[in-house]
Amino acid sequence: MNNSDDREQVDAIWRKTTVLDGIGGSPGVAVAPVLIVRPPVLDVPERRIAVSETETEWQRFEEARARTRQQLQQLRTRLDARARSGEAGILDAHLMVLDDDVMSARVRTEIVENQHNAERAVRDVANHFVKQFLQLEDPYMKERADDISDVGRRMIRNLLGITDELPESWETPCIIVAENLTPSETIALPREKVLGFALDRGSTTSHAALIARALEIPAVFGLRRITSIANPGDTLGIDGSRGMVILNPGPRELKRLNGIAAARADAQRGLEHLRNEPAVTPDGRRIPLYANIENINEMSTVDAYGAEGVGLFRTEYLWLASGCAVGEEQQTAVYAAAVRALRGRPLVIRAFDLGGDKFLGNVGLSSEANPFLGMRSIRYLLRHPEVFKAQLRAILRARAGGEVSVLLPMISDVAELRRSRELLEDSLHDLTTEGIVCPPIKLGAMIEIPSAALSADLLAEEVDFFSIGTNDLTQYTLAVDRINEHVAHLYQPAHPAVLRLIAFTIEAGRRHNRPVCVCGEMASDPLTALLLVGMGVDELSMAPASIPVVKDAIRKTTLEQARALAEEALASRSSAETIKSCRELLSQVAPELLPLV
Ligand code: PEP
Ligand code: MG
Fold first, then answer.
1. CA dihedral of 454, 460, 466, 470, whole degrees rounded to 10
2. Does ligand 1 lie within 6 Å of residue 471's CB atom?
3. Whole-angstrom Cα distance, residue 43 to residue 549?
4. Which atom belonging to ligand 1 lies closest to the Cα atom of 467?
5. Residue 56 DSSP class
6. Test site for ligand 1: of 316, 411, 446, most ligand atoms within 8 A of the Cβ
7. 395/312 same-domain check
8. Are residues 220 and 142 in the same domain?
9. I want to staple 509 with a disulfide (CB 3.0 to 4.6 A). Which of 59, 132, 398, 516 is the partner?
10. CATH number assigned to the domain comprising residue 170
11. Residue 396: which CATH number?
């Protein structure tokens, strides 16, 4: 052993093993050296320019803007090629910031009227808008501040001739540790060298989380102090499913993490043969499994993971990705493409679920103190019938080519359903008058508010099917913000109150002969998926990558076992008790799947 080996060993002994809990942002396990990414302090020169220099300075700004645009477009192409869920839309948001007229007019005033050099002008204007966005209540708008700051920094680097913030040549694979990552930093990282992310900030809806999931890179967010305790040379183990990281894992922890990773890989390999098999219990209960998608680019995953159709197309992402309203023609093209890709399999198109955390400044949604309780979703659509009708027309036009249904989000009473149906019928009538023939279409209601669940028997008379959105149902029943890391421990989909509302909805569906699907995250987790099957749901819709494991769990559990689990859960006193029972059942019927839970 030479001196440096010696030093390394002594060093390793002194590196303390520390376990931190955060929020699971993207599943999977990774162990690798940390790479701490801190945004470099940009030294922005400040200069008062002469009046005669102002046009040359503006020219410098324009040139830097053209360079920035080119870089962002290149990054976008790279992301398009690498990510499956089309997160490239985030770069579109950056391009919009870059070409925003209000911002560039302000930069021009700074340069031409206040005679400030371009770097200073860009910094001051970006800071001004970042501050304004950070003051907004809405978490989605707050995250837009990151976009502005990211674009501003890139512009200043280009003005200063600095080419890249992050190391270009990576010698070893690593786990990125950072306070937060901007979208373009995340995308610029070489996928094959980045094995994971561990961030102080962020929730499951932050940009970094979206991209990590799209690239299937394990990630943990909301760790709060990982950047203050990790040092260069440390090793980090991360378990993205459990939302846990281990800094400098010792031999015991390493063995455990490696064991989890190997077991996950084995379990995943063992599921590949199931792609074309149905999800049917050994005693014959068949549960169609559908995919949730946000973007047309994800259609490839529908086939890859063997979905029987799309149970939830979250169309509002069309708006969020492009940053503005999407018209009837553009929507028709997207929906028709989805219909073609499905080749006869069903497609459930959810009407725009805008508002809450899915917010756009330019669509007439103003800032609200409680956006999740405000002008969200169906409320927005009924307030803007022209937007709603354009979408209904696009859906109806796509219906002409295949098995398409409409799903209404955030329904809370019968009146909303009746008004929506009127608009649907109006749209159908208009299309018929225009000579476009559309077959009848099924209308469904999302059950994601306690008032909807508790009046499911009344709603059932107005619609053709239900789809239970357990993500929101949990949030609204328990009064726990679903994207707030500080109350994440209180967010419990298996809470007795949530289960009772689900049971009530299923019963109402059964009595009125209306199929009941669950499309919230509860369907993606094999533990709760078995519980839902036992409770009597007809269909499940989930993230495509979850289909194989849920399918295998269903194929190994009899309906009788699932029903016994549901009975126990409905009598239980806490979410913890129920999850324990679910785990016991899965350990009994399919222990090999536990690594994927
Ligand atoms: C839900 O609330 O469970 C749901 C599926 O809708 P979203 O997650 O898009 O709000
Ligand atoms: Mg919802």
1. 0
2. yes
3. 51
4. 5
5. H
6. 446
7. yes
8. no
9. 516
10. 3.50.30.10
11. 3.20.20.60
